[in-house]
Amino acid sequence: MTASIENIKKMMKSLNMSYSIEYIDELLKTSNEMAYSYEMFIEELLKNEIYLREKKKLNIRLKYASFPEYMTLDKFDLKEQQSLSQRQLNQLKELTWIEQGYNLILLGPPGVGKTHIAVGLGIQAVNYGYKVIFTQMNDLVHLLKTAEILRTSKTKIKRIIDSDLLIIDDLMFMAMDRNEANLFFQLVNKLYDQTSIIITSNKGPEEWGELIGDPAITTAILDRIVHKCELINLSGDSYRIKHRESIFGKY
């Protein structure tokens, strides 16, 4: 019995091999030209299907992560940030701290690379199959306040709770009232021991009381975040100011 290519495609569709359907004609041609064995043909077919499925999953994870820019750690210039060694950066890139349930706090003035490192580690984690969410602190507070009334906010909060890594950028950007601080504590409490957190801030944990306001809530939040945590102090001049561009050019 001779199988037609159309029947093969129908069977592949029923098996949800949607990527291979587009690839099968080219593979058959290559297989005939290169005299593939049956085993080689099947292996190439399945390898392609797996590769494209993983690529789709990666793109979905990147979309949900909501990074402000695609900034990888390969583009981070350590010469501009002497307070972090190549060895330390490599250790962070290995991501064993996520498996161990550690948090990271990146401290330093504006422009020293806190967000770049956070996003770079987030992209690294996405590439390794982790679910990552990036958010500005003010956006996170808005999501927490509207989760009970807006479906989109509720969905995003659920993704945060289900994530492996949450990146909170600019923690000291805005002060919270008591209700906002309590909502933030409830989120941190849910994430405790199941989701790693990266926080970027221009002020250390000892000053977070200025943001959170309530001493008891501040203590409870710090207790959960700092329990297993690496504090990384970044120093130096702002990269953006040092390398600013001018409309007048150089003369």
What's this, in brief?
Helix content is 55%, strand content 10%.
N-to-C span: 79 Å
> Which radius of gyration do the C-alpha atoms yield?
24 Å
- Please name the CATH architecture of the largest domain: 3-Layer(aba) Sandwich
Strand content: 5-15%
* Strand order in the largest sheet: 2-3-4-1-5
Structural class: alpha/beta
State the domain count: 2
Number of strands: 5
* Helix percentage: 40-55%
> What's the order of the H and E elements?
HHHHHEHEHHEHEHHEH
CATH class of the largest domain: Alpha Beta
Number of helices: 12
- In CATH, the topology of the largest domain is named Rossmann fold
CATH superfamily of the largest domain: P-loop containing nucleotide triphosphate hydrolases
Explain this structure.
The chain is of the alpha/beta class. The chain starts with a helix and ends in a 9-residue tail after the last helix. Helix 9 links the parallel strand 3 and strand 4. The protein folds into two domains: 5-65, no CATH class; 73-241, P-loop containing nucleotide triphosphate hydrolases (Rossmann fold, 3-Layer(aba) Sandwich), CATH 3.40.50. It has twelve helices and five strands. The longest helix has 28 residues, at 38-65.
Chart the SSEs and their pairings:
Blueprint: H1 5-14, H2 18-34, H3 38-65, H4 86-93, H5 96-99, E1 103-107, H6 114-127, E2 132-136, H7 137-146, H8 151-162, E3 165-169, H9 178-191, E4 196-201, H10 209-212, H11 215-226, E5 229-233, H12 239-242
Parallel strand pairs: 1-4, 1-5, 2-3, 3-4
Helix pairs in contact: 1-2, 2-3, 3-6, 7-8, 9-11
